[in-house]
TrEMBL record:
PANTHER family: QUINONE OXIDOREDUCTASE-LIKE PROTEIN 2, SHORT-CHAIN DEHYDROGENASE/REDUCTASE
Keywords: Oxidoreductase
EC top class, as a word: oxidoreductase
Domain Enoyl reductase (ER): 11-322
Pfam families assigned: ADH_N, ADH_zinc_N
SMART domains: PKS_ER
Organism expressing this protein natively: Pelomonas nitida
Entry annotated with the keyword Oxidoreductase: yes
Domain of life where this protein originates: Bacteria
The protein's name in its UniProt record: NADPH:quinone oxidoreductase family protein
Entry's EC annotation: 1.-.-.-
Gene Ontology molecular function, alphabetical: oxidoreductase activity
Length: 325
């Protein structure tokens, strides 16, 4: 097999595309021949040694992928050779094959492309868990989505609209704002040229958004939280800007607001039956045309460094996907 190997996590430039022995199949696992893999922000952090998980060296990065089952270990049920699957496996996705626990694999229904499937689980599961489970979003409410042009942001727009909410998208350029509105956002704010808090007051007639979806963190967080509606829910999804904000907690008191943590990965481990039902609902929404991953670029797997460079430059709208024949 071939894989991108990280022997020294000092950055993307240290990754090597080379031959490796095929990984052994252990009990409870399936072997997947990878057809497509997507980039998520943790993929960049982990090769820079900045992620919370520090895998032993060397390792093959790549958290999310799709492909075809080529081998099933003894005792595994529900999977057969030739079956199409997607997975959020943590590691190993930037390769031609991988062995993963069968429990991590999602069978793909007919009509689900490998490219869409590789860009599906992390972003849509995160956004569904955030908005519906943790944020209790209801039809008619207003949701502000920060970083709305990214992978989780574009997924959040689609899920919020499916739920009947009004969506205000906030992004870092006019082109990204236009892309969000084309995807269904009711309004958009370019936070590099507009004052976020003032724009939110105007767009909500001074009431503020009921739910704030924040995968960005950094210096946008306090301005957004100050604009939240009475009984609003602020969803802490991630810190793509790199800075973990320190919010004045008196704001929660004054607005009767909730500060809600969102950790889909831990939810999936602790509540697997609930997670499985959620993924089933998302697959049904995909089949019905209610949601569909936004693919910024589809590149050959060998061009992983170029994909990382585009992500690092924050030029991506939606998800970057890498494929191999």
């Amino acid at each position: 097999m071939k894989a991108w190997v990280c022997e020294n996590p000092v950055g993307v430039e240290a990754l090597q595309w080379r031959d490796l022995p095929a990984p052994p199949l252990t009990p409870g696992q399936i072997r997947v021949q990878i057809r497509a893999a997507s980039l998520n922000f943790p993929d960049l952090l982990i090769v820079q040694n900045k992620y919370q998980m520090k895998p032993p060296l060397p390792f093959v990065p790549g958290t999310e992928f799709s492909g075809v089952v080529s081998e099933v270990s003894e005792g595994v049920k529900g999977f057969v050779i030739g079956q199409r699957v997607a997975a959020f496996g943590g590691l190993g996705g930037f390769a031609t094959e991988v062995c993963i626990p069968a429990a991590l694999a999602m069978p793909l229904p007919d009509g689900f492309s490998f490219e869409d499937a590789a860009a599906f689980i992390c972003t849509y599961a995160t956004s569904h868990h955030a908005l519906i489970d943790r944020g209790a979003l209801r039809a008619g409410e207003t949701v502000l989505i920060l970083g709305a042009a990214g992978g989780v942001g574009t997924a959040a727009i689609q899920i919020a609209k499916t739920m009947g909410a009004r969506v205000i998208a906030a992004a870092g350029s006019d082109a990204k704002c236009q892309a969000c509105q084309a995807l269904g956002a009711d309004a958009a704010i370019n936070y590099t040229t507009q004052n976020l808090r003032d724009a939110l007051k105007t767009l909500t007639d001074g009431r503020g958004p009921d739910v704030i979806y924040d995968p960005v963190g950094g210096d946008l967080a306090e301005a957004a939280f100050r604009a939240i509606a009475w009984r609003g829910r602020y969803l802490v999804v991630g810190f793509a800007q790199g800075q973990i904000p320190a919010l004045p907690l008196n704001l929660a008191l004054l607005k009767g607001a909730s500060l809600v943590g969102v950790f889909w990965g831990e939810f999936a481990k602790r509540e697997p039956s609930h997670n499985a039902r959620m993924l089933g609902e998302l697959a049904a929404w995909y089949a019905a045309g209610k949601i569909k991953p936004v693919l910024d670029r589809v590149l050959p797997l060998e061009q992983l460094p170029a994909a990382f460079a585009r992500m690092a430059a924050r030029e991506v709208i939606g998800k970057l996907v890498l494929t191999q024949v």
